[in-house]
User: Which sequence fits this backbone?
């Protein structure tokens, strides 16, 4: 029996996969994206967070059996709403054996893996292979820029993306649009070039940049120091994707868009 640390089990989510879902946010991430809006998901351990209403503990250890029991109780309602369960984070693959154990205990539940792709290929293949859909975050194709903004090499991420394309699991590439960092023409063209060569790709989602992370950092005793202009409108340019015949969707959120999103 495995156990792991979860910072939230959120019910009735509608942006973490098809239909109505329950999203399990696992604690701990090997990356340190400068724009991360879930700093409470970075440390693998429970921690204290200060808020306007006082202190609270973020993160709790569960057994796989406990989590599966919670999710299985909701399975019928999730199924009837075309949904299921999403494993997100943090980075869920940091606790891959725990996630595998939970999935193995689920009864007829649609599973989405929401991952940065940063894991060993064996861990990645095992959990992706137990999922019905993968949301794969792709931030920066340039290796040096990836190291500068996330603290990690993107080689394992790109290798896992290629591995995913050889598996029989559909996937969506998700690109966070950070002004002047990930939304540059060069980066979007590079992502479109990769995406256009991948079997199994459902679409690329261009995602809005969230500006609300600063308070959470302070509550955890961390600093949020964006080196980009947060007020700059995101460049949600779909042209490179259309040119590469890649289905693309833009979530409007709080960004100013160059064009109306194409809905898929
Ligand atoms: S991969 Fe996601 S959770 Fe991890 S640091 Fe980056 S944005 Fe945050």
Assistant:
């Amino acid at each position: 029996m495995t156990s792991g640390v979860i910072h939230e089990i959120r019910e009735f989510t509608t942006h973490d996969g098809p239909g109505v879902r329950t999203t399990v946010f696992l604690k701990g991430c090997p990356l340190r994206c400068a724009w991360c809006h879930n700093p409470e998901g970075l440390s693998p351990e429970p921690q204290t967070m200060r808020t306007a209403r006082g202190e609270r503990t973020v993160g709790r250890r569960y057994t796989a059996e406990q989590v599966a029991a919670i999710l299985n109780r909701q399975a019928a309602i999730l199924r009837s709403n075309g949904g299921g369960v999403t494993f997100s984070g943090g980075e869920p693959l940091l606790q891959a054996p725990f996630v595998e154990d939970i999935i193995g205990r689920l009864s007829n539940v649609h599973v989405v893996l929401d991952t940065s792709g940063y894991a060993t290929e064996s861990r990645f293949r095992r959990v992706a292979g137990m999922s019905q859909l993968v949301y794969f975050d792709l931030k920066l194709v340039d290796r040096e820029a990836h190291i500068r903004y996330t603290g990690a090499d993107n080689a394992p991420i790109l290798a896992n993306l290629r591995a995913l394309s050889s598996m029989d699991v559909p996937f969506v590439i998700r690109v966070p649009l950070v002004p002047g960092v990930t939304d540059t023409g060069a980066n979007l063209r590079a992502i479109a070039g990769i995406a256009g060569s991948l079997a199994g790709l459902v679409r690329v989602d261009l995602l809005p940049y969230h500006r609300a992370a600063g308070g959470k950092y302070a509550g955890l005793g961390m600093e949020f120091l964006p080196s980009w202009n947060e007020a700059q409108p995101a460049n949600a340019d779909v042209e490179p994707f259309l040119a590469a015949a890649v289905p693309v969707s833009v979530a409007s959120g709080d960004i100013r868009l160059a064009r109306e999103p194409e809905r898929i």
